[in-house]
Write a structure and sequence with these properties.
By secondary structure, this protein is of the alpha/beta class. It folds into two domains: 162 residues, NAD(P)-binding Rossmann-like Domain (Rossmann fold, 3-Layer(aba) Sandwich); 118 residues, N-(1-d-carboxylethyl)-l-norvaline Dehydrogenase, domain 2. Helix content is 49%, strand content 14%. The longest helix has 29 residues.
Length: 296
């Protein structure tokens, strides 16, 4: 293996664009594609080749990295790329998908002779831009020397969860982690909404729990976005968080577990999206607590 890889990045939204940029900065040759080409174009300034089609993007790639909206989008994009895929290419599938979708994606990889890595990431816009994501990965040992430089370029830590990407162990861990993120975000919004309704200063609430077991950095980070009106650009968008919450609920249903908090959080996020907050940070689910827009 040479130090430089040719990496195809399919999907250049909030996360994919940051990952592509960090791959280019690490010295890899990046070929980027996005359904809306305008979202990929800025990466040309970082040295990335902007492809017009998924097939063009994966030409001569050592590693294909997918960071798309959901499982069906990832599968459809790879089907479009199929004519140019080379057997033996490593595929790092980083889209957050449902457990059943991992099976379908791994099946596609097997049919085309690809080395499949179930590789979702933990982190939002800030860590992605700083190359400080946590990569959760499962896949065959024979290709890890090829994907490791890719994971190192986009993250500071790689957590290997197994040898069989098709088993979805990395995705399962990601869904558990996201269930905590979704629940915590909902709790932040509801606490601040109740504080407003009861005329309690947020600072009094923060002071009450400061330094104790109920205090947490995530509370302060998300609360600041709400209180300071910094919900755009999103660290993690409401619409994407709602999609992930539904995946969590579905995973629970498939395994006989009722996840009431995740289900309620999905409804809150979807309600916030309907009210025009879909592209804002997921903390904007705060607005789902009010029948009308709350006063400043």
């Amino acid at each position: 293996m040479t130090d430089q890889l040719t990496v195809s990045v399919l999907g250049t939204g909030i996360m994919g664009a940051a990952m592509a940029r960090n791959l280019a900065r690490a010295g890899h040759a990046v070929r980027a594609w996005n359904r809306t080409r305008a979202k990929a174009e800025p990466l040309a300034a970082d040295g990335a080749h902007i492809a017009g089609t998924p097939a063009e993007a994966v030409e001569s790639a050592d590693v294909v990295l997918t960071m798309l909206y959901d499982g069906p989008a990832a599968l459809e994009t790879m089907r479009q790329a199929a004519p140019a895929l080379r057997p033996g290419t490593a595929w790092a599938q980083s889209t957050t998908v449902g457990i059943e979708h991992v099976t379908a994606l791994a099946g596609f990889a097997r049919e085309h002779g690809l080395l499949f890595y179930d590789a979702p990431v933990l982190g939002t816009r800030g860590p992605a831009e700083a190359g400080q994501l946590t990569v959760l990965a499962a896949g065959p040992g024979e290709g890890r020397d090829r994907v490791a430089p890719v994971f190192d370029a986009v993250g500071t830590r790689t957590v290997w969860t197994g040898e069989d990407g098709a088993a979805g162990s990395a995705t399962r861990l990601k869904l558990v982690a996201n269930s905590w993120v979704v629940a915590a975000t909902s709790a932040v919004g509801e606490s601040l909404a109740l504080a407003k309704a009861l005329d309690v200063a947020p600072e009094d609430f923060f002071g009450l729990i400061a330094g104790g077991p109920l205090d947490m950095g995530y509370l302060h980070a998300k609360a600041a976005l709400i209180l300071e009106g910094r919900l755009s650009p999103a660290q993690f968008a409401v619409t994407t968080a709602a999609k992930d919450a539904r995946l969590i609920v579905r995973a629970g249903e498939q395994h006989g577990v009722r996840l009431d908090v995740a289900a309620a959080s999905a409804e809150r996020l979807e309600r916030a999206a309907v009210r025009g907050h879909g592209d804002e940070d997921m903390a904007a689910a705060y607005y789902a607590s009010f029948d009308e827009q709350p006063p400043a």
